[in-house]
Amino acid sequence: LFRSPTEKRLGRPRRPSVPQQSSASAAQSQRTDSIALLFADTRQSALNTNLSISLLRGIEQELWRRSAAMTLLRLPESGLLPSQINPRQVDGVIIRTINRYESIDLSALGSMPCVHLFERFELPAHGDMIFEDNQAISMMAVNRLQSMGCRKLMFVLPMREHPSFQARMHTFMTCSQEQGCTVKIIEPPAAPNVINLAQIDEWNNPTVLQQRIESWSSQIQKLATECDGLFVPGNDAEIELLLKNLLQNHPGLDQRLKMVVCHNQAATIGAMSPYVDVIDIQPEQMGAAAVDTLYWRMDNPTSARRRILIDRKSTRLNSSHLVISYA
Hints:
37% of the residues lie in helices and 21% in strands. The chain is of the alpha/beta class.
C-alpha cells in the first residue's frame, strides 16, 4: 500500500501489547513495532535493482520473525529526511546509502537508532554500520584465479569514485602482487568527478552505458592475448551486459580466459556461462544483520558504535561468515 510517492508500508499486523514489569520492558512496550527503511535517493529506480530487492527481502524476513512492520521511503526532492522518520511513527531507521547522492543532514534523527547499509565516503556522524568485506572479496577472487593457473590478471574498475570498488581494486592489486601475479586495470572511458544524483543519471544513460560496455569489451579482448584471468567486481547490470557482449562477439572467450565476477544473482550468470565463477556479497544476510543491529541498538543506546562485516560467498567455494568489529 503506497501512502505517498515515496512511502510504502510493509510487515505483519502488530501483536497485542502485553503488560510489562521492568523499566527496560516498559521502554520496549512504548515502541511502535515499526521501523523505517530509507533509500537515500530520490529515484524510484534505486528500489528496483537486484541488490535493493535482495536487501529488502532480508530485512522483511527478519522483521516478520519479530512481528514488526516497516515503512519504505525514498528521499523527497527536497533532499530532507522524510517526515515519517520520527519517534511517534518508527522506533529506528535503516539507511541504504547510495554512493552517488548529496549528503543528507542526519542531525534531525537526534538519538533515534540508526543503521547504515554500505559504507559512505565519510564516516557518518550517527549510527551503526553494516557493509560487505571488500578485502575478502578481492582476496577470494585472486586466490580463485591463481588456483586455476592464472598469473596475468585483469581488473575491471566500474567506477573510479565508488568506495567499494576502490577498496576492491587496491586489495586485488596488493594480493596479486604478493602472490607473484601482474595486474592490468581496465578503467571506465569516462566518469563524473563530483558525486551527485544528476551525474549518476547521466552515467546510467543507455547510450553512455553501451559505450562503456563496448570499451571494456574491446580492452579485454586485446589484453586476452597476454592475460589469463579477469575479475569484474560489479555492478549487476554492467556485468550481465559485458558478459553478453564478450560471449556474442568473442565466442569461447569464457573458456580461454578465466573469469570471476561479483554478482547478486549467481543463477543469472550461470545461465549465461557455466565457466564464470560468481562471488555473492550476501545482501539478504546484510539486510537481516541491519535489523538485528538496529534492535540491539534500541536495547543498548549507550554502547559503542558497531561496524559489522558481512563476508562473501562463492557459488563454488560455498563459504560465508559474519565478522563483527567495534568502532
